[in-house]
Amino acid sequence: MAKAKKTGITPTREADYPEWYQQVIKAADLAELSPVRGCMVVKPWGWAIWENMQRVLDGKFKETGHENAYFPLFIPMSYLEKEAEHVEGFAKECAVVTHHRLEPDPNGGLRPAGKLEEPLIVRPTSETIIGEMYARWVQSYRDLPILINQWANVVRWELRPRMFLRTAEFLWQEGHTAHADEAEAREETLRMLHVYADFAENYMAMPVIRGEKTAGERFPGAVSTLTIEAMMQDRKALQAGTSHFLGQNFSRAQGIKFQNQSGEEEFAWTTSWGVSTRLIGALIMTHSDDDGLVLPPRLAPAHVVILPIYRNDDERSGVLDYCQRLKNELEAKTYSGDAVRVRLDDRDLRGGEKNWQHIKRGVPLRAEVGPRDIENDAVFLARRDTGEKQGIGRGQFIESVGDILGEIQDGLFQRALELRQENTRTIDDLQEFREYFTPENADAPGIHGGFALCHFVDGDPVVEEEIKKLKVTVRCIPLEGDGQAGKCLFTGKPSAGRAVFAKAY
RNA sequence: CGGGACGUAGCUCAGCUUGGCUAGAGCACCGGCUUUGGGAGCCGGGGGUCGCAGGUUCGAAUCCUGUCGUCCCGACCA
Predict the structure, then answer these.
(1) Which residue is nearest to nucleotide B39 (CA to C1')?
(2) H/E/C letters for each residue in A207-268?
(3) Of residues 38 to 77 in chain A, which lie within 7 A of strand B by their beta carbon?
(4) pLDDT tens column, A388-415
(5) What is the strand order of the sheet A473-478 is part of?
(6) How many of the other CB atoms lie within 10 Å of CB of A59?
(7) Contact at 8 Å (CB) between A162 and A282?
(8) Does nucleic acid strand B have an atom less than 7 angstroms from the CB of A151?
(9) A336: buried, middle or exposed (CB in 10 Å: 19+, 13-18, 0-12)?
(10) pLDDT tens across A445-467, in order?
(11) Nearest nucleotide, C1' to the C-alpha of A315?
(12) pLDDT per residue over A369-384, tens digit each?
């Protein structure tokens, strides 16, 4: 009897994309909302993905000459006031600590006491506190460059949280560097953008566009903001990482000064760059399908899950022995420089239910092993990315496991790249632009639009108004543009190059 | 911070219009038996001060007032 095809996730992406996203997180047991407004609890499976991301990125930061350090969670309010644009950018979303003690109140509860002389803000980002320290550390050109990264949590009091994409508290890394000259600082900004792009494409299997933000989208206080932008499966853009050239704005505000070789006093040139747990959201929306999470092998907490199948206690011990041996043999193999990560799921659950759990959690390979397979010295192997299932000899499986994982990794990247290519258009006609970004049914806007490459004039009010109406934003001016000049789509004024326009998260 | 909706079991919700026996269902959970190669079936069981505080009433999940919270749509944002 053929059963009706049932998806692991309800609703499907097509039916209700935002709800699908929430359900994937739930079904894959990645995280859940906490009782604290806007803050989430990252559960072990989600955390393991983050740990893998951290491990890879941390290695890349160290390879590029950076060291880790740690700076305080609290920042004196006055620090934030020093850089005017910076204040404006973050003031509206800061958590503020005004007291340092609790005392009993008359109703049997507690109330804050011990008012602080100067309020402390919980860092929304650490440029100011880190800059303050750099100012103390730098006297001579010989003290530069300073190349430091920190792994930390930050707080931005968001009004509308979405798991992983925008939460009040989130985890990230922030690199902060100070240099003796502009060229070196600009080079650093670009270098780290490429580190991010490499990580996104080769580890997350997520193609990205490297580009520069327009003035309006720039980091508050930065001279230039570089970004990597990815397309999610609903064709919206997600900013996946940023690298900022801060010029001398922050060093002037914070007094990061040094004497150069001629004995003259100069301000240092600084940069900052970061990626956050938002990358997990990006990962989910890039690869997952209507059955749940799909993980690129390089970041998957488990590459292979072995599912023993048996009917009774007699079969049980034999099957488990065989599985344990298979696990050991697989773990002796490597993929992408690491030992193959294998889990043996011998929980006392029904096979079907167990199997679905691993599908929903996105494990790249599931190997079912039952008496029948053992007889043939084989396993029944299922791929999460294609859904393909086949019997394969045990020896062959062990020999090829690394290759199969590599195939999955590459396949996911190709699939994501194709989606982006199919949904990227060069547009030179305003009417076409409007239609491209207008959903067929305004009351239930389904998946529509994509990336549009258009000529434009940065900051022109006519442009701003038009794209705002359509809820479209300028994502970036690609670094690898065609370099052709043209006419602004909206105003007809001369344009030096095309930018990527899209709806965004 | 503006507009809308909603708070009933761990989760999703019914019941409320028209107040009335012991507050229900599905899923999840626990136990037993039969099962086990893509989400098992049957039987039994545990679990709720109906968000909170007042009020009306012989009687409130249901009506009234207040309050707290959550979600959605805007504005803001990694």
Answers:
(1) A353
(2) CCEEEECCHHHCCCCCCEEEEEEEECCCCCEEEEEEEEEEECHHHHHHCCEEECCCCCEEEC
(3) none
(4) 999 999 999 999 999 999 999 999 999 9
(5) A67-68, A146-155, A169-179, A269-276, A237-247, A224-231, A209-212, A473-478, A498-502, A451-455, A424-426
(6) 10
(7) no
(8) no
(9) middle
(10) 778 899 999 999 998 888 988 89
(11) B36
(12) 999 999 999 999 999 9
A351 touches strand B (CB under 7 A): yes
State whether the beta carbon of A397 lies below 7 angstroms from any atom of strand B. Answer: no
Q: Of A256, A279, A4, which is closest to residue A137 (Cα–Cα)?
A: A256
Contact, A436 CB vs strand B, < 7 Å:
no
Geometric angle at alpha carbon A450, from A448 and A452, rounded to 5° = 135
Mean pLDDT in residue range A26-39: 84
Cβ atoms of A458 and A272 closer than 8 Å: no
A178 in Cβ contact with A145 (< 8 Å): yes
Question: What count of Cα atoms within 13 Å lies in the side-chain half-sphere of residue A266?
Answer: 20
Among A123, A79, A71, smallest CA distance to A97 is for A123
Would the Cβ of A242 be found within 7 angstroms of any atom in strand B? yes
Alpha helices in A305-393 (DSSP H): 313-331, 351-361, 371-376
3-state secondary structure A99-153: EEEEEECCCCCEEEEEEEEEEEEECCCCHHHHHHHHHHHCCEHHHCCEEEEEEEE
Contact A180, A50 (CB under 8 A): no
Q: Chain B bases under 7 Å from protein CB?
A: 1, 35-40, 69-78
Q: Is the dihedral of CA A445, A449, A450, A456 positive or negative?
A: negative
Question: Other C-beta atoms within 10 Å of A223: how many?
Answer: 19
Q: Strand locations in A378-456, DSSP E?
A: 378-383, 389-393, 424-426, 451-455
Q: How far is the CA of A192 from the C1' of B43 (A)?
A: 64
Q: What value of ipTM does the predicted structure carry?
A: 0.83
* Minimum-distance nucleotide, CA of A353 to C1': B39
- Give A3's pLDDT tier (boundaries 50, 70, 90): very low
